[in-house]
Each structure stands twice: as C-alpha cells, then as structure tokens.
Write a structure and sequence with these properties.
The protein is an alpha/beta fold. 49% of the residues lie in helices and 15% in strands. Strands 1-2-3-4-5-6-7-8 form an eight-stranded parallel barrel, surrounded by eight helices. The structure holds glyceraldehyde-3-phosphate and zinc ion (ZN).
Length: 279
C-alpha cells in the first residue's frame, strides 16, 4: 500500500471508531521501526516529523524512507505522512511537494488573531491540494513554556474554539488540556475542559504529548471526539537506550548494524505496546 491521504485516514478512524496514533520520527531506523510496528498491529496511523527534526534531513528524504519501509514490509494498513508542529509556510510547502499527506501548522506562539490568520493562509493552500490541516490553540508545556508558564496558563480557552475553528478552516484541533511534551513533567488531563472543547469544536481533536499520559486517560479521552494522539519521547527513549545499554555493557561496542536492527525492533515493539493499550 502507498502512503494514504490524510482525509482518507481520518475517515478510516471515524468509520472504525478508533483513535489514530501518530509517531514522531527523526531518522531512518526510527521511521522503519514505526512502520514495522504499525504493520504488525494491523492498524493504521501516522508517521510524523516536526519542522524541528526536519533540520537533520529534508521532507523528500523522509518520504523516501517511509515509501521504502512500506514497500519492503509489504504494508497493508493505512499510513499517512504528517508534518508535525510545522513552523513555516515554506516547511508546509516543501512537505506537500515531497508527498506528505497531512500537515500541522503550529502558530500557537502568536496572539490569537495572528494565529488565526496564519492558519487560515496555510489551510487555503493545503486544501487546494486536498491535504488536511491540524492547528494548535493554546500552548503545551514541555516545549512551549514561553506561552505557558504555569500548568493552567497555556490551556486552550474554550471561548476561542468556535471562532478559531470556523475562521481557520482547520480539520483537526490540537488542544492544551494538561498534556505536556516530553517526560520531564507529569501530564494531568483536565477532562471537564476536554469535554467542553469537544462540545464546541466542529472538528476532531488531537492530543499531543502522548508519552507519559496513562493509557486509561487516552481511552477515556476517546469519548470526546479525539482522533489523533502523538507519541514522540517514548519512541526516542527506547531507541536511544538501545545504544546506551550496549555502550554501558561494552565501551568498545562497534557493531552499528546489529544495534541499529535492535533499535528498529525496539521502536516497533514500543509502537505495538502503545497501540495495544490505546484501543
Ligand atoms: O508533537 C509531538 C508529540 O506531541 C510528542 O509528545 O514526546 O510527549 O510523546 P511526547
Ligand atoms: Zn506535539
């Protein structure tokens, strides 16, 4: 199967009443491990990469890697390739040109009116190419402390949701409801807020910062029009620790191929564990 269009993947999730996992990649091994894990669970999801991580390569290279993995592993589950935390119009354009099938534009650092107008501009562009757009309202702690100094400060304001969604024409809404990026801070999901947002939002919701959120909470959040949940740190930690452990055991370890294969399998296993638990 080829990489599928983001709208098609969203429809697949809505028809099957499942939440789609989105796994962050950085390099070849992590990409291959994610695709391997998705295939072995028999369920679809996203491979995604942030603007930040794209600094190491470029969208074309990532698209090639996903194509290669899907072909080699004879993938028959739907997988979309998504730009995560897109930080510029140029990144969005380059990703679409390279064959990405879904996009996030993250202008959450801007005041509301500017966030709206930037997302609006990107949505218009992406929709012309039939690509769905995820946008973020509020700031998620862990990386966006500049806008969210305290636990409550950056949370999505439900009073802004209707205007944001209708003006930006976004297709998915990333919310800040006590979810955090990375593993340093503990998430604390504010379910009353999630419920209120889901009542107002005309589009399905996205939960960032999946690593560290108890699986019970993710399953509970599915009741509130949640379509996508992002996992980055869990995958990366597993991959990095593969090499860390080998080095601790033997400071002269140099069999990079075997360790890379182990890293791929550890990533795939983590993907499987997550997917088995969020359904
Ligand atoms: O956009 C990426 C995700 O929100 C990843 O968050 O690293 O906490 O799982 P995480
Ligand atoms: Zn995120």
């Amino acid at each position: 199967m080829k990489i599928v269009n983001g709208y098609k993947l969203m429809k697949y999730a809505q028809d099957k009443k499942i939440v789609l996992p989105a796994f962050n990649t950085t390099n070849f091994e992590v990409t291959y491990g994610i695709v391997k894990g998705l295939q072995s669970t028999g369920k679809g999801g996203y491979v995604q990469i942030s603007s930040n991580n794209l600094e190491l390569s470029n969208p074309k290279i990532i698209k090639e890697m996903v194509d290669f993995a899907m072909e080699k592993l004879d993938v028959d589950v739907p997988i979309s390739l998504h730009l995560d935390h897109g930080k510029s119009f140029e990144d969005v354009k380059n990703c679409i040109d390279a064959g990405f099938t879904s996009v996030m534009i993250d202008m959450s650092q801007l005041p509301l009116s500017e966030n709206i107008s930037e997302v609006q501009r990107i949505s218009e562009y992406c929709h012309y190419f039939n690509i769905p757009v995820e946008a973020e309202l509020g700031a998620i702690r862990g990386k966006e402390e500049a806008q969210a100094l305290s636990e409550n400060e950056g949370k999505t304001n439900p009073d802004d949701v209707a205007e944001f969604v209708s003006k930006t024409q976004c297709d998915l809404l990333a919310v800040s409801i006590g979810n955090v990026h990375g593993l340093k801070e503990k998430p604390n999901i504010d379910f009353p807020l999630l419920k209120e947002i889901s009542r107002i939002s005309k589009v399905p919701l996205v939960l960032h910062g999946g690593s560290g959120i108890p699986f019970d909470d993710v399953r509970h959040a599915k009741e509130y029009n949640l379509i996508k949940v992002n996992y980055g740190a869990d995958i990366r930690k597993k991959f990095i620790s593969t090499f860390g452990k080998a080095y601790e055991k033997d400071h002269n370890a140099f069999d990079l191929k075997t360790l890379s294969q182990r890293g791929i399998n550890n990533v795939a296993k983590t993907v499987e564990d997550i997917m088995d638990n969020i359904d």
